[in-house]
Amino acid sequence: MQYTRESAISRLLNSYQAYFNITMFNEEHPYLTAICEFFEHSEKYVLSRQANLWAANCEEFVYLFNVGELTRELFEECRDFACEDGLKRAHIGPGHMYTYITPIFVCDTCPEDAKAAVRKCRIYKSFRFSLHGWMDFHTAVLEVNDNKITTNRSGRCVEKILKNVLFNSKKKRRRFL
Fold first, then answer.
1. So what's the pLDDT on residue 176?
2. Could you give the count of Cα atoms lying within 13 Å of 33 in the half-sphere of its Cβ?
3. Which end of the chain is more exposed for a tag (fewer CB within 10 A), N or C?
């Protein structure tokens, strides 16, 4: 199925709205369409909550960018914005397990130098030698003209999600109905 940038973003937002808090943007950042935030708290205790064995907080921030042509410079600008903003939103401290920051670029075209920058993008931070968790940066580019997805190594899970949401959704629905 052939998508436009707007229809692909709309489909992604519809799939994310069940689990994520979505904030739409219009003018603050020219290419940013939405930020999707996911928070999870898990804990294990014995008999009462005062006897807490462990607790873990997990977070994910997905940034949806709508771009006509994704150049290397634009990718680097949006990457830096997402990384900085995601770290501001993260709740780092005791009980923090991980934070995933995931910018997804929906574009018409992407030159080869920008794809190379996406593939080489590796941002990982551990906090207090991983005692306060870590942050991993996943990124993906969806070219709607060719239905191609390019990711960095950490973003391979995002590629699976994009393929399931955008290209395989009707097959999945038929199996469950």
1. 44
2. 19
3. C
